[in-house]
Amino acid sequence: MKVAFPEAPEPSDEAAEAGRLLFAGPVDFVKGVVAMDGLPPADRPEVCFAGRSNVGKSSLINALTGRKGIARASNTPGRTQEINYFALGDHSYLVDLPGYGYAQAPVAVVAKWQALLKQYLAGRPTLRRAFALIDARHGVKLVDHEIMTLLDRSAVPFQVVVTKADKIGATTLAATLAQVESELQRHPAAFPELVVTSSEKGRGIATLRAIIDGLGRG
């Protein structure tokens, strides 16, 4: 049966305010993790952000938190080589995963952090949802299917966040969303709503904040 993947609705005023307050509160870098035994205690819910190198992940995290430098944004693909943990007060963890796919780094280094990413997704009991970032200009690529398949196999629910929506026109964006919806039919762990965002323009930020706040409460 074909599953619909509409754009997530705007949050209620109450949910939007709760999300705003969450991210207006303390957001602290906890640690960068290079091995599974370095993970913080699994003592609270967490959400993670995964995406191809240069998909706009750091910029999105900066936009969510309202803090320009909390996640380092770089034009060099593959700069993030650790699992970076941020604490949203005592509410939950926000986890920035290493970019996957193309990276300007030695092959052995890439292989090591890709293996860590897979181990994390398969073995973190407090992970409530993964956010799979897809560039609005490119849609779902083969490498995205690889990480989504891993999420399927790990029984980790994931929700697609379309980034850089301001970089293309409305007609092209509609075509991208149709392509994403079609490709997601292959993935049973996909949550049936898309979040369409622009870190520069603020589109979708309130929606994503409200979703993350709700996951930390549920």
- Secondary structure class reads alpha/beta
Number of helices: 6
CATH homology-level superfamily = P-loop containing nucleotide triphosphate hydrolases
How would a crystallographer describe the biggest sheet?
7 strands, mixed
Can you walk me through this structure?
- Residues 43-218 form the EngB-type G domain.
- Belongs to the TRAFAC class TrmE-Era-EngA-EngB-Septin-like GTPase superfamily. EngB GTPase family.
- Its cofactor is Mg(2+).
- Keywords: Cell cycle, Cell division, GTP-binding, Magnesium, Metal-binding, Nucleotide-binding, Septation.
- With 218 residues, this protein is of the alpha/beta class.
- It has one domain (13-217): Rossmann fold (3-Layer(aba) Sandwich), CATH 3.40.50.
- 36% of the residues lie in helices and 19% in strands.
- The protein contains six helices and seven strands; from the N terminus they run αββαββαβαβαβα.
- It has helices at 13-24, 57-65, 107-123, 142-153, 170-184, 205-217, and strands at residues 27-33, 46-51, 83-88, 92-96, 127-135, 158-163, 195-196.
- A seven-stranded mixed sheet has the order 1-3-4-2-5-6-7, sandwiched between helices.
- Helix 5 links the parallel strand 6 (158-163) and strand 7.
- Helix 1 crosses helix 6 (205-217).
- Residues 73-79 have low confidence and may be disordered.
